[in-house]
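Reopening this one. Same input as before:
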Amino acid sequence: MTVDEVIEKIKAAIPDAQVEMNGADCSMSVIVSSAEFSGKTPIQCHRMVNDAVKEDIISGRLHALSIKTKAL
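Same output, byte for byte:
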């Protein structure tokens, strides 16, 4: 799975997201900033990002994704 594919999936799920990626291949880290995170717990924000790539993690296309979130 490419960095661009991960970014596309996150932005499809969270349209106003600002996404910073590090890593390559199947292990990546991401920092996602969004106004949609306002008022949500960190776990809720992480679930939103994780849900965007859930199928890829299940299928093995994406092995690991370290997630950090920020509310705008």
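So the earlier flakiness isn't reproducible anymore. For the record, The chain has a mean pLDDT of 93.
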